[in-house]
Amino acid sequence: MRKQIVAGNWKMNNDLAESKKLAKQVAKKVKEGKIKDTKVIIAPTFVSLASAVKATKKSRVKVAAQNMHFEESGAFTGEISTKMLKSVGVKTVILGHSERREYFGETDALLTKKVDAALAHKMNIIFCFGEVLADRKSGNQEAIVESQIKKALFHLEASAFKNIILAYEPVWAIGTGETASPEQAQEMHAFIRKTLANKYGNDLANSVSILYGGSCKPTNAKEIFSKPDVDGGLIGGAALNADDFFSIVNAF
Ligand code: PGA
């Protein structure tokens, strides 16, 4: 059985006190809601990681970073390494988010280095990819997604995928209020699984969790998560409110 996962990407929101409060609220709700099967992850900013780890310590909520550098240390002003993340108890990192690709010029080649570094340090990765609106309009979405996955991940040994969660996030649906329909999500997730199967075989393809991201909300999560190849969600805006986030966690 594939893992069901709901991860909250807080992006550049919440200061230290706000993050601590939200992390505690999420941990409390997950505990009280007796969530057992769904893996719950929150990703605050670097500043709040240590406090979020502490705030969720007695719960099953895990804390992820939103980014990292591929080197372990050195003259890289403003960057954070896997070693630093692990030193505060963070073992998961989001890589390849469309905002990193678009606003910070992260390329497939750079992401390959980050993926390799994260795996070398035994981190888990939530690897994001997805097409922009123009690609969707021209019917190129599958070719784009296939190329993003192949370039960053297909040099890996099959065993590496034990530590990788995939997140399909159509860029036109992120923060726009526009969501891929459950059918569009399913169609793409099935394509992603087929792409994995072609390279690594069916067993591996069937073992990797593929999350949907892009304006996932309490009102649409249940329908999207009900699709056979959708194993959960990467949630932005709706992860900033504990009630909304919890009702998405509870949507399975
Ligand atoms: P959104 O963001 O839920 O606000 O659309 C999703 C994401 O960027 O991961």
What can you see in these coordinates?
- With 252 residues, the protein is an alpha/beta fold.
- Helix content is 42%, strand content 15%.
- α1 links the parallel β1 and β2.
- The longest helix is centred in the C-terminal third of the chain and has 19 residues.
- 2-phosphoglycolic acid (PGA) binds next to β8.
Blueprint (SSEs and pairs):
Elements: E1 4-9, H1 16-32, E2 38-43, H2 49-55, E3 62-65, H3 82-87, E4 92-95, H4 98-103, H5 108-120, E5 124-129, H6 133-137, H7 141-153, E6 164-168, H8 182-200, H9 202-207, E7 210-213, H10 221-225, E8 232-235, H11 242-249
Parallel strand pairs: 1-2, 1-8, 2-3, 3-4, 4-5, 5-6, 6-7, 7-8
The structure holds 2-phosphoglycolic acid (PGA).
The site of 2-phosphoglycolic acid has 13 residues, from strand 8.
